[in-house]
Amino acid sequence: MLIFIFAHWHIAFSLIFAPVKRLLRKTNTQRMNKWWWKILCIILLVYTIIAGLLWDNIPRIPNLQETIRNLYFHVCMWFAMMILFTASVVQAVKYLRTNDLKYDIKSREFAVTGIIFGILGYATGTIWMSFTWVDPNRPAYESFSQIAKEPKLIGAAIALLIYFAYLVLRDSINDMDKKARIGAVYNIFAFAFLFPAIWIIPRLLPSLHPGGEGAEGGNPALDFKDLSPQMRIVFYPAIIGWTLLGVWITSLKVRMRLLKEQTLLIEQ
What we know:
Blueprint: H1 2-7, H2 9-54, H3 74-98, H4 101-132, H5 140-147, H6 151-171, H7 176-204, H8 229-267
Helix pairs in contact: 2-8, 3-4, 3-7, 3-8, 4-6, 4-7, 4-8, 6-7
């Protein structure tokens, strides 16, 4: 028997370790199924930062010059914000249909992450306009007083404040079911106001922002023809990368919130 095993050691090895290999292969497959989009997120964001800041792939527009690179950050974060707010309202509708508190938690965390991306988009836009909209021939206070009336800035600020109010209202209610129900209904109304405040109303009013009435040129973020071909290869991957980052952050926050809720239920 021993002679047979030594003579056919490779067969014995495969018989013994085949189940272990299958288990490891299955575990690695499951792990990859959970992690592939996170790896893609990291790759796309690294690509966005390196290509967006270092590649000489931008058109030389007199008023923008190198600041046009902010398109990969400011505009793409706004797109990620809109997608996250859309996911939030979808989860709110799911809660109203099922009364499952899991969807209420997801709705809240998607809204929180959307607000974070909205603040980042607002901040990068404010920095951008300070270089492109300010008239160097006029006193600073006159330029900024005109910019403060910009419809895009006002609409974005109002939309973010509405979502801030959603968090304050929802978290001020102690009863879990009542909190979830009122929060879900408010979320739907907040989302209904989001698109008019950011996309529709500013385009109907005189504006310095691209796409507004009286602005030079169109909006390269929304019009495929206005965006130069060399920028598209960075712009669209950047949208996907920032959105996946938002989903990643939300998934972590949802897991933490679910653990906290389970702990509270056990203590009660």
